[in-house]
Prior knowledge:
With 373 residues, this protein is an alpha+beta fold. Helix content is 36%, strand content 25%. It is built from twelve helices and 18 strands. The strands form five sheets. Strands 5-6-4-7-8-9 form a six-stranded mixed sheet, sandwiched between helices. A six-stranded antiparallel β-barrel has the order 11-12-17-15-14-18. It is globular, with a radius of gyration of 21 Å. The two termini are 31 Å apart. The protein binds guanosine-5'-triphosphate and magnesium ion. It is found in: Cytoplasm. Belongs to the TRAFAC class translation factor GTPase superfamily. Classic translation factor GTPase family. IF-2 subfamily. Residues 81-250 form the Tr-type G domain.
Amino acid sequence: EFPITIRSLSEAIGRPAKTLMTMMFQRGEPLTINASLDEETAIELSMECGVDLEVRHERDIELELVEKLTGGDGDVEGETIRPTIVTILGHVDHGKTTLLDALRSANVADGEAGGITQHIAAYQVEHEGQKITFVDTPGHAAFGEMRARGANVTDIVVLVVAADDGVMPQTKEAISHAKAAGVPIIVAMNKIDLQGVDEQRVLQELSTNNVLPAEWGGDYEVIRTSATTRQGLDELLHTIVLTAELHEYKGNPNVPAHGVCLEAFRDEGRGVLAWLIVQQGTLRIGDDVLCGPAYGRIRAMYDDHGNELEEAPPSTPIKVSGLDVVPGAGDHFFAMADIDEAREAAESRRQRGRAESLAGRGLPRTLEDILNQ
Ligand code: GTP
Ligand code: MG
């Protein structure tokens, strides 16, 4: 697929062609949208945008192999409707985590509702018979890359905008990530319980940022919510279910498992714990996986309630143990053929990472760094 035009790369990684052209311009190489990039440059640009093209490439090779083995031409046997993945994006303190907790506690059994103490990156809830997987993201300015990646693994973005604060810098950033990823946006105008909020002003700000509310003739539903009084939660869930029904998100439990790491840390005693979201395939205990620079055999797997699992089909958020080092948020994971293959891939990545960090000291690493230059 190389050389690749700026237009095709932009489509492949879900970033505006204009951004890529700006990046090339800043490298002193102004190019048109139809100009070709060599493989190395394309990979570098993608990395700067937070997309690991090599990983995509490895995944494509795996998927191609699976397609050959199953004799399918594009349609691998066993594709089924999977739970919708919804990522919550928005400015810091606008109420993303509180809203998610409220959505979840509406859903869990009574005995459990009070017991949510630990921070969890992803939840699964059921509404109107449909499972929805929610992914939380931080709103702090420093985590732009996590938001970009969040927007890239998701089917739908719920954009949380606090009614008393309106559209703020990370709201705008979230809008551009969601639009670059080409996913539908549902707006939750949150904290609607506060005295003296000016709804019209928020709608106006959304409009000027290319999110024209449905009530003003646009494409975007704006649901009034309060995580505190629980106003609008059902309506928000219902709107998500309707959007999901329109798109029919499919997954295939029969291909090699792959997905994304949402966050990971080292736990005294249990070693590395990673929150993963399975996008395709089924991840099982005993699978050998590669995840960013980490590899290992899945030793234990838990769902968002802390229950032990044997296997996780598409769209399942899980916590796993068994990786050797802590992977990064946004790193992709793959089930590999065996542990040797996983180890070799991880080791070559670590070497490449060292070489890159030596060569690239001081170079911008994220899209945000580049835009802020
Ligand atoms: P970051 O993860 O740091 O980006 O913040 P966040 O968007 O997750 O916000 P968080 O849920 O932590 O809430 C921030 C503050 O707003 C907390 O003090 C919440 O109690 C409060 N809050 C959240 N939702 C509502 C709401 O609907 N109404 C009111 N009155 N307060 C809310
Ligand atoms: Mg939060």
